[in-house]
Amino acid sequence: MSGRYIVVFKDSVTQDKIDQYANDVHSNGGQVSRKFTSLLKGFSAEIPETYLTQLKSFGEGDIDYIEPDSVVTTQ
How many domains are there within the chain? Predict the structure, then answer.
């Protein structure tokens, strides 16, 4: 089963390394839908639950946070 997540990287992580993580998500059955480069560094993706745990442990030094992707509204 897959879920939609936003993966945000620390400021020190290069774009090449972020692209490598995105390719790894794809190689493990996920799909990156959007890349972020201006306000924050990262991407949104559909990530299989089986790979999500690996991503969290492999990216411990590079990833700032991973959170579920959801709709945000303002009033």
Answer: 1
CATH code of 54's domain:
3.30.70.80
CA atoms within 13 A on the CB side of 14: 3
pLDDT in tens, the chain (75 residues): 779 999 999 999 999 999 999 999 999 999 999 999 888 999 999 999 999 999 999 888 999 999 999 877 777
User: How far apart, in whole angstroms, are the C-alpha atoms of residue 44 and residue 18?
Assistant: 12
The sheet with strand 41-48 has its strands ordered as: 31-36, 41-48, 2-9, 63-68
